[in-house]
Amino acid sequence: MEHVKYESNPYDQQPQYDPGHSATTMGDKHSSSPYGPPAHYGHTTIITAPVSQQMDRSFWSSGLCACMTDCSSCLLTACCTVCFTANLATRMGETCLYGYCCAPHFAGTARPYIRGKENIMGSLASDCCIGCWCGCCNICQISRELDRRGYPKGCMC
């Protein structure tokens, strides 16, 4: 009987790896590596969180154009916007120089900061539009929100 030797294509075979020299991640001998065999695990564990644990979102305590509920902040903003933003900056824990020297920047960043910190509904796009086109009403609304939530008074009032 004649013995026929079959040579297989080397690309059809599973490569042989030396377990002592395979690449591992942080000492884990079962980790997958581009140079080693794929990792095979016996089971899969899926961890899920309950859907009912959603954060409660709130609304602004007053409307954007509700300046008549707080006439002093409305008048101060109309007469000296920079002074009012300096006061607002100190209320939010910043230096008054930030509100005084960088009033446009502060007015643009204060709204999304308070909205995010206090979990108030809204979007960054609406914050940007309100900051650009309704600057005085924006900082008055932020001041009323800080009053309602019990933030300390600033350096001026």
User: What is the ordering of alpha helices and beta strands?
Assistant: HHHHHH
Characterize the largest beta sheet: strand count, sense, and whether it forms a barrel: none
CA-based gyration radius:
31 Å
The proportion of strand residues reads under 5%
Question: What's the count of strands?
Answer: 0
Question: What would you call the shape?
Answer: elongated
Gap between N and C termini, in Å? Answer: 108 Å
Helix content: 40-55%
Low-confidence stretches: none
What's the pLDDT, averaged over the residues?
Answer: 77
- Total number of helices: 6
User: Helix/strand-derived class?
Assistant: mainly alpha
Describe the structure.
With 157 residues, the protein is mainly α. The protein has helices spanning 71-79, 81-91, 96-101, 103-117, 124-133, 135-148. The chain has a domain at 67-148. The radius of gyration is 31 Å and the shape is elongated. The mean pLDDT is 77.
